[in-house]
Design goal:
With 297 residues, this protein is α/β, with parallel strands linked by helices. The chain is 49% helix and 13% strand. The longest helix has 28 residues, at 6-33.
Length: 297
């Protein structure tokens, strides 16, 4: 009989929706305005990326990438092919694929079994930098499969790589990662982060992007719907909860080639910092530059 009271129900629902929208907008606005603690250092790294790249190339470092068939991995491979910061890049995965790059000879693909990764430990020798973009979904692999890939395989990769001499490990995690989370996804990501941190790498960098904005080839109806809903949010609050995949990979490379802070062996980049490091917020950094370059009175 509720339809008899539409004049009362509809205005009430409208007010509730409007209130919720205001609250959500306030949260997004806050996240979009949030400034990273080490903003100055990040701005310097982003602005000096070109000169840092030329200096870094002289080191003749080798790198490996796991998870290179996923969206982040493919974008990373493309960017590496363009800037070529390393002497050689080894792509380690379950199978070889056709690379969508102009110079595939810059890469060397090696097949590995992540369940028996120790048997491929020799492949990691002589490689100083590692990138891990391994990941799946609960919907695709089930809860057990998800934990196996996003935690077990990730942690094992870091273990084997470090034992072989890797000095700098770069992990693509997720916004909201927390080992104490009540949600499987963020809890698993957080536990993987902590497990690798305990290995005491010479340099360990974690990237926590928001919802990745990319043209995913693999059809995932749920994610496609979320991205559709996020388009207006990303337009109004670009750094709150979304991250263009090309910005993420640029941030990863800009971080690697920068001179590390000798006082820090651990770096954590939340979503806003990733945008800045990837050169997506040049105006924010230029404001600081203008202030720093102003003559003293």
């Amino acid at each position: 009989m509720l339809w008899f009271k539409c004049s009362e129900i509809i205005p009430g629902v409208s007010i509730g929706i409007a209130f919720l929208a205001v609250c959500v907008s306030a949260i997004l606005f806050y996240l979009d305005l949030e400034v990273p603690k080490d903003k100055d250092r990040i701005c310097v790294m982003a602005e000096a990326a070109e000169s840092n790249l030329e200096e870094y190339k002289k080191k003749n470092m080798n790198a490996f990438v796991v998870g290179y068939t996923g969206e982040v991995g493919k974008a990373l491979v493309k960017h590496l092919a363009q800037v070529k910061p390393f002497q050689k890049v080894y792509l380690l995965g379950r199978r070889e694929v056709t690379l969508d790059v102009e110079d595939p000879s810059y890469f060397e693909q090696k097949s590995v079994d992540f369940e028996k990764l120790e048997e491929s430990s020799d492949l990691f020798k002589g490689i100083g930098v590692g990138f891990c973009a391994l990941g799946t979904t609960k919907a695709k692999a089930g809860a057990k499969g998800f934990v196996q890939v996003d935690h077990d395989f990730v942690v094992k990769t870091a273990e084997v790589a470090k034992a072989a001499g890797c000095e700098h490990f770069n992990l693509v995690s997720s916004q909201g990662a927390d080992k104490n989370s009540s949600f499987l996804y963020t809890k698993t990501k957080g536990q993987a982060e902590e497990a690798i941190k305990a290995m005491a790498y010479q340099r360990y960098s974690i990237f926590r992007p928001g919802v990745l904005l990319c043209d995913r080839q693999e059809s995932r109806a749920g994610e496609s719907f979320v991205r559709f809903l996020l388009k207006p949010v990303a337009a109004l609050f670009p750094t709150a909860i979304s991250t263009p995949v090309d910005v993420l990979v640029k941030a990863m490379i800009n971080n690697v080639i920068a001179t590390p802070d000798k006082a820090k062996d651990f770096e954590l980049y939340e979503n806003k910092a990733i945008h800045m490091l990837g050169g997506n917020l040049k105006s924010s950094c230029s404001e600081k530059t203008k202030v720093d370059s102003a003559p003293e009175k």
